[in-house]
Amino acid sequence: MFMTTIVIIGAGFCGTTLAVQLLRRPPVTPLDVVLVNRSGLLARGVAYGTRTASHVLNVPAGRMGALPGEEDGFLRFAQRHDPKVGAGSFVARRTYGDYLESLLADAAVHAPSGCRFRAVVGDVNRIQPLAAGGARVMLNNGDALLADKVVLSMGNYAPADPPLADEQRAFYSSPRYVRNPWNPDALWVVKPDQPVLLVGTGLTMLDVVLDLRDRGHTAPIYALSRRGLMPQAHRDLETPPVYDEQLPRRMFARPTARNYLRAVRTAVAVHARAGGDWRDVIGALRALTPQLWQALPLAERQRFLRHVRPYWEIHRHRCAPELGRRLQAEVDSGGLTLIAGRLGAYDERPEAVRVRFRRRGRAASEALSVGTVINCTGPDGDTRRLRDPLITGLRDDGLVRADRLGLGFEVDAHYALRDHDGVAASWLHYVGPFLKYRDWEATAVPELRQHVAALAEVLHRELAQQAPPISGFAS
Q: What residue ranges in 292-360 does DSSP mark as E strands?
């Protein structure tokens, strides 16, 4: 009997929840759902693999259900472990990983007859299309998986090294430089009595500051970015706010980055005069953000990325209230200093690194002496330059097309990846943060949950119309 095989590459939120949905409601039977992950840790990824207690979710528990129709699923899971958790609680990210792991285990055990699940540990280094349809997924250990459908669900790659003159880039090989703070034990190289420079002032910076302090780091911490903007915090709310829907209409009337910015600023000012909070205004745009983004011509998207993106991200992607208070306390006490400026040069010495930088709006450069420099610029989403073997192979083979803005891949409305000629694949799909070029918002669970559900429906529809499968396992 023929068996249809769907291979999912990447076992973070998107890969895990897609596997859960396919196992709960198989599009065809017999069906083999194969989840490939390089680390062997399922349902974790970068976000939920942390074991640091102060790393909590950036969305309240009541809105973190992984599956459509089960928006309170995570809340119920968290309350079984801690009855004090409420809908507005910000729960540890490792607990969310436990939740996703339990969903996957339950779906695998209770999958309908004729539907099975396999977890494969390994790196995929090439995907080869087959003339009969589908593809051969090649692993770095020499094994191969034959698939009728392949879904890529990765996207959180190590930060790119901050731009610097070529003669200065040798420092990025130094043990005093941490390129990826999410690597296990990456921060153990930091000496607790030496100052640290964090490059980047977003949510990754916040996580690193908290992690260092929890480890007993007592020396000053400096954080440098072009604008020196600090992450904003959520309010303590049990229910989501409600806001007037007129703002999106005013933005759609003239889709330019300038009009979008002016419309939001005006709405914030009007709402504040009525006693409201700016967070309500930003929340009003959440459901319509993809349409607002898609309405912008390419030149306006580029303008948005150059001038507006940093301000949007600190207001849209907020931290938990308690973490916001901790961050503000660090700033107020002088433990953390935010600097708006540009890196200039590194001078590594036996006892420290002397970092030269120029503050925003000033001509003269300044210097800091630190023990370690940590890259906190966030995941690299520019698939034009990523050195990952799988992405490099897909790019070189012409199976994917990196987008023109350096945000991810070109993906059609049905989550099919476009090849170098712009033709959408019939067998290769993508879901995850590389959807930013198409939809802009593809980072938080409430958005990703909908993307995964939409892709699951696409797979149901396409497999119902597909010819007999070609898949199985080869070595």
A: 336-348, 353-359
196: in domain? yes
Give the model's confidence band at 209: pLDDT under 50 very low, under 70 low, under 90 confident, else very high.
very high
Whole-angstrom Cα distance, residue 288 to residue 194?
46
Q: What is the CATH number of the domain that holds 346?
A: 3.50.50.60
Same domain, 192 and 207: yes
| Per-residue pLDDT at 468 | 61
Name the nearest CA neighbour of 376 among 338, 324, 432, 321. Answer: 338
> Looking at the domain assignment, is residue 308 inside a domain?
yes
Query: Is 337 in the same domain as 227?
Result: yes
Contact yes or no for 399/383 (Cβ under 8 A): no
pLDDT per residue as tens digits for the range 253-280: 999 999 999 999 999 999 999 988 999 9
pLDDT reading at 239 higher than 70: no
pLDDT tens digits for 357-393? 999 999 999 999 999 999 999 999 999 999 899 999 9
Instruction: Write out pLDDT tens, residues 441-462.
Output: 898 999 999 999 999 999 999 9
Mark out the alpha helices in 128-256 (DSSP H runs): 203-214, 246-253
Sequential DSSP letters for 16-69: HHHHHHHHHS-SSSSEEEEEEESSS-TTTHHHH----TT-B-SS-GGG--SSTT
> What angle, 0 to 180 degrees and rounded to 10, lies between the N-to-C axes of helices 257-273 and 298-307?
50
- Parent domain of 273: 246-316
Token pair in block for residue 42: 């399922």
Does residue 60 belong to any structural domain of this protein?
yes
From the number of C-beta atoms within 10 Å of its C-beta (0-12, 13-18, 19+), residue 158 rates as: middle
In DSSP terms, 345 is beta-bridged to 356
**Do 2 and 463 form a contact (C-beta atoms < 8 A)?**
no
Whether 262 and 360 map to the same domain: the answer is no
Question: Which residue bears the tokens 């229910």?
Answer: 239
User: Chain-centre distance of CA 60, in angstroms?
Assistant: 17
pLDDT of 217 strictly over 50: yes
Cα end-to-end distance, the chain, whole Å = 20
pTM for this structure? 0.93
**Inter-residue contact 224 to 197 (CB < 8 Å):** yes
The CA-CA-CA angle for residues 92, 96, 100, to 5°, reads: 170
302 and 226 together in one domain? no
* 445 plus 470 within the same structural domain: yes
